[in-house]
């Protein structure tokens, strides 16, 4: 494969920058660029007379990131030097790498499977410890090994079913013992269910734990959002119905990413725009992991706005506590706050506690699925298994069972890239940055 090159460090000036080269002939090409003795060791200092003093790292195939000969040149981080090195490499015959092309080659050369390659991009994009943990474990093969294990178990039975097909003339001949097969299919289905379930945790880690701030108009929701963010993000006013559309922003508390959603206050209104806003408030509640229910404690009775889904984490905030006498702070199971004072530390702690409960799965059950592509493949695999189970109950023949089992195997195999297409690969790797 042709020799590719790219600047692997971020664009702009830095202490040092790294230019990466990969492909058969990469070492010879680098030798021509940096001059001097052959690059006979892994790490060599070289003086490029008219340009820079550099350190060259050599990784010989197959023991490199891409599985090909790879050379990394660490130069001083001047934009001019980086671009000049790249220009000279291209003059010498290398070509500029496409986004993700180094990782794509690593995949093609069997250095990693597709799920691991995807995790490389996630790891680079990780902004919090949670995101990093999930990406790192996927890059190290957690998702891949689990799915490969399930695949192998099903493969054994599929082969036995196919053997039955070869002996179709002998109808009584059963190689794939049905009770054992049924037990295994149920076991695999359960495991897939657990992985599908883990997706909400994966999403919470990747996109942030979704927190919807809801309540009656004028309760102080936008003030609360601003206090949490420490920023005047949303408009606050004493006119009920100030927030019309949802207002979103992110916040990191204790290493966990939260996506806060301030919503339009709920009240009786004829205003169609406000009604549309309230519709969005309800949607925000539906997709939230945690619902913060804000009640104006100075206004007496609560508004009854409660999330529809009983399974959600709910935090009740009695706001405007500054307007209350101490003996009025009597309601249990809620936090008395004054969003206006900006002191919302207790709410931050409470959000973190709920998030930890939500994310506990990650620590308890290990593998977490965080990619939509993997989630969809698992759903397909699960549906195929459902068909197998139904087929077995209905006493279907080996031929039909084998078809559904193959659908399941294909779906599982698509995650690790055993089964894949150029289109899927193009889609995945185009999202990478150049140089990785
Ligand atoms: N005294 C006091 N006033 C507050 C507090 N929090 C909010 N307010 C006031 O209550 C009024 C409404 O605040 P907002 O934050 O706009 O309320 P909201 O719930 O977002 O209202 P809508 O967007 O209309 O649904 C403003 O005048 C705020 O200054 C508080 O803790 N104490
Ligand atoms: Mg508001």
Short description:
This protein is α/β, with parallel strands linked by helices and 436 residues long.
Word description of this protein:
There is one protein chain. The protein is α/β, with parallel strands linked by helices. The protein folds into 3 domains: 4-112, Probable tRNA modification gtpase trme, domain 1 (Gyrase A, domain 2, 2-Layer Sandwich), CATH 3.30.1360; 119-204 and 371-417, tRNA modification GTPase MnmE domain 2 (Four Helix Bundle (Hemerythrin (Met), subunit A), Up-down Bundle); 217-343, Rossmann fold (3-Layer(aba) Sandwich), CATH 3.40.50.300. The protein has 13 helices and 12 strands. It has helices at 26-34, 79-91, 101-108, 114-125, 129-139, 142-166, 178-207, 221-229, 272-287, 345-365, 372-393, 398-416, 422-429; strands spanning 4-7, 16-22, 43-48, 52-59, 70-76, 95-96, 209-215, 247-253, 256-262, 290-296, 313-319, 335-336. Strands 3-4-5-2-1-6 form a 6-stranded mixed sheet, with helices on one face. Helix 4 (114-125) packs antiparallel against helix 5 (129-139) and helix 7 packs antiparallel against helix 10. Magnesium ion (MG) binds next to helix 8.
Helix content: 40-55%
Strand coverage percent: 15-25%
Structural class: alpha/beta
Number of strands: 12
- The number of helices is 13
Task: Compile the SSE list and pairings.
Layout: E1 4-7, E2 16-22, H1 26-34, E3 43-48, E4 52-59, E5 70-76, H2 79-91, E6 95-96, H3 101-108, H4 114-125, H5 129-139, H6 142-166, H7 178-207, E7 209-215, H8 221-229, E8 247-253, E9 256-262, H9 272-287, E10 290-296, E11 313-319, E12 335-336, H10 345-365, H11 372-393, H12 398-416, H13 422-429
Parallel strand pairs: 1-6, 7-9, 7-10, 10-11, 11-12
Antiparallel strand pairs: 1-2, 2-5, 3-4, 4-5, 8-9
Helix pairs in contact: 4-5, 6-7, 6-12, 7-10, 7-11, 11-12
